[in-house]
Design goal:
With about 675 residues, the protein is an alpha/beta fold. The protein contains 18 helices and 23 strands.
């Protein structure tokens, strides 16, 4: 449907009919052939909340893979399974929530503080990594290039949003223009300009005093003006109500609705935009304001083929959902996501040397720990114990017990731990959290912080359990499950190996077992800093970047951004540089000097040679994941054009510098 056809359709609608299209539950307008549609759907790491689906690792785990190709493939699976579900729903005449094609993913907010429960939904703390993975995911979901979009992605939450959850509805994030441009906006800009993302979701919080969903500086000046965004803007759910109820920025719902739609929020997740009829009668909005929003919304529906025309995707069958190929990709993604933090040589284990393996802890046989938040329902759950037991087969005894619960008030002394572990060849301790304890306000069962953490260390009950087990058996491998950074402290002393597992998806147990027994070499790298303790963190409500993330943190982390061990070793040559026509080319040769094949994430950083105050200590600017056989070498080349040679000054303006003003280096 052309723009002119959309304009004509809108011109034939009454004001009441127009308003009926501006909430997520859009009504049918039968006389004009407009079907009912619910815009709300989720697909953070697989199609969510719509029954069976392939469930991939949670977003922070996907970020740990440092693999844009993988994110694109996952996005493509989401689009394929989503279209199948949508087609099936249409055949049933079902227009319910979670069966549409407008997915409110990815979350490209910066994970600036590990206490934030929703940080698990993001691609970590680095703007460049987040932008690359976000663009890859968006392109995979949307499949632009054909006659129609296969599905529509949505970059959220715009902008400057990363907790605390308990006060998000009325919170005002105060941010400098420098931090805004340097840290909080780059991933959104890339999503719009490179990913051509179809939607952007406004955040709950205010930014510098103005609620995000009626913030003309964000939605009009930057998003549509500077970046040229042509899609639609949707509010976070309930955020328009927050404009009056919690931010006190409007007197009532009609004024809140008017402020939202006039300042660039086209669609209300919620019901406050129903009050636009009152706002229209009070001359707070014009019919032209409604038409502008409808052009954006119907443009998306037309590009998806929802306004009466057939698409090239209409015959995708339900049989593609959770098919073997998609499940294999989930297993591969889980393998790529796991980060080996410590290994004294105990790993990989040798199956033939095992007589008994004990798999203990609150997450040993938990299917919840696989899922994170915003998930679909897998056809099977490979828990850590199930994956290890399956791998070992009948020839090795595998035992399991919860051992302790998640928190101190739930200490469980009902197990004879000594009997379980004393004669085990390996003890696999599955500790950490689940999305039941960290996540979004209202979803996580965390009464003291609305889904956020107050302490990034393991809970006291788990620390005590680890210490107790180590007294009976020193062959301990600690598996930590969490959405973000954990401070281990003395826990590291009780384990011969430590593996960060995130929330690893439906195939997590199989991926873990295959890593533990050396079927592949670990290759995940941390997309966030693992701090030594909560005391290293600034005030949670402080949105300045001072002493936050690896780019500004001046302390000593427990494990730095980008860290991750392998079963093999890689040696890097010195970085060489050559410049021609303003383009800097940097080359490094990487050699696998160990005894097994492995993957390495080659990361290029830069820092200023003479930085002014308040500049990043270093910043990731390029990365590439490569596979090397034992003894194999490969040259990796990165190019940096002149337009990428800049810094953000104190006023949030780009200052272009010669390449010689920077030091370029790799880390491994």
């Amino acid at each position: 449907m052309t723009q002119e056809a959309i304009k004509k359709l809108i011109s034939e609608m009454t004001v009441e009919e127009k308003v009926s299209q501006l909430t997520n539950s859009a009504a049918a307008v039968a006389r004009l052939g407009i079907p009912q549609y619910d815009w709300w759907n989720e697909a953070l790491h697989g199609v969510a909340r719509a029954g069976t689906a392939t469930v991939f690792p949670q977003a922070t785990g996907l970020a740990a893979a440092f693999d844009t190709e993988l994110l694109g493939k996952i996005g493509a699976v989401i689009a394929e399974e989503g279209r199948a579900k949508y087609n099936n729903a249409l055949r049933r005449g079902d227009h319910a929530q979670y069966y549409g094609l407008t997915y409110w993913s990815p979350n490209v907010n910066i994970y600036r503080d590990p206490r934030w429960g929703r940080g698990q939904e993001t691609y970590g703390e680095d703007p460049y990594l987040t932008s690359r993975l976000g663009v890859a995911f968006i392109r995979g979901v949307q499949q632009r290039g054909g006659a129609h979009l296969k599905a529509a992605a949505c970059a959220k939450h715009f902008a400057v949003h990363s907790g605390p959850e308990s006060i998000r509805h009325g919170f005002n994030a105060e941010v400098s223009e420098k931090d805004l441009r340097e840290t909080y906006l780059p991933a959104f800009e890339a999503a719009v300009k490179e990913g051509e993302v179809e939607a952007v979701m406004g955040a709950y919080n205010a930014v510098n005093g103005v609620p995000s969903c009626c913030n003309s500086y964000l939605l009009q000046t930057i998003l549509r003006g500077e970046w040229g965004f042509t899609g639609h803007v949707v509010s976070d759910c309930g955020a328009i109500a927050d404009i009056s109820e919690h931010h006190k920025y409007a007197e009532d719902y009609p004024e809140a609705a008017a402020l939202g739609i006039k300042n660039g929020c086209d669609l209300n997740c919620g019901s406050v935009y129903e009050k636009l009829l009152d706002a229209y009668e009070q001359d707070l909005v014009t019919e032209a304001d409604l038409d502008t929003a409808l052009m954006h919304l119907f443009g998306t529906r037309a590009r998806l083929g929802m306004l009466g025309e057939a698409t090239e995707y209409d015959d995708i069958p339900l049989s593609v959902v959770a098919c073997p190929e998609h499940k294999a990709l989930s297993l591969s993604a889980a393998e790529e996501s796991l980060v080996l933090l410590k290994n004294d040589g105990f790993l990989p284990l040798k199956k033939e040397a095992m007589r008994k393996v004990a798999v203990l802890g609150p997450n040993a046989n938990s299917f919840e720990v696989l899922l994170g938040n915003y998930f679909g329902i897998p056809t099977e759950y490979s828990t850590p114990f199930a994956g290890i037991k399956e791998y070992l087969g009948d020839g090795v005894e595998a035992v399991t017990a919860r051992g302790c619960k998640y928190f101190e008030q739930d200490v469980d002394a009902g197990y004879s731990i000594e009997k379980l572990v004393k004669d085990a060849d390996a003890v696999i301790l599955c500790m950490g959290l689940t999305a039941d304890y960290e996540g979004e306000e209202g979803d996580a069962n965390n009464p003291y912080a609305s889904g956020d953490r107050t302490d990034i260390a393991l809970p006291a009950a788990q620390k005590a359990f680890i210490k107790t087990v180590a007294q009976f058996n020193q062959n301990v491998v600690l598996l930590n499950f969490s959405g973000g950074a954990t401070a281990f402290g003395e826990d590291l002393n009780y384990a011969r190996a430590v593996l960060q597992c995130w929330y690893p998806g439906e195939q997590g147990g199989r991926a873990i077992a295959r890593l533990l027994f050396g079927e592949y070499s670990p290759c995940g790298r941390l997309p966030v800093t693992f701090y030594a303790g909560t005391d290293d963190l600034p005030d949670f409500c402080d949105y300045t970047m001072k002493n936050r993330t690896y780019r500004y943190f001046t302390g000593k982390p427990e494990f730095p951004f980008g860290y991750g061990l392998s079963y093999t070793t890689f040696v890097y040559s010195p970085v060489t540089a050559e410049e021609a026509d303003g383009i800097l080319t940097l080359r490094v040769t990487v050699t696998n000097t160990g005894g097994c094949a492995g993957k390495e994430v080659v990361r290029l950083f830069r820092s200023e040679t003479c930085p002014p105050e308040n500049q990043p200590l270093k910043s990731l600017i390029r990365f590439e994941k490569i596979s090397l056989a034992p003894g194999e070498s490969r040259e990796v080349a990165f190019t940096v054009p002149a337009q990428d040679s800049f810094r953000w000054n104190a006023d949030g303006k780009k200052e272009y510098l010669p390449h010689s003003a920077f030091r370029y280096f790799t880390e491994n």
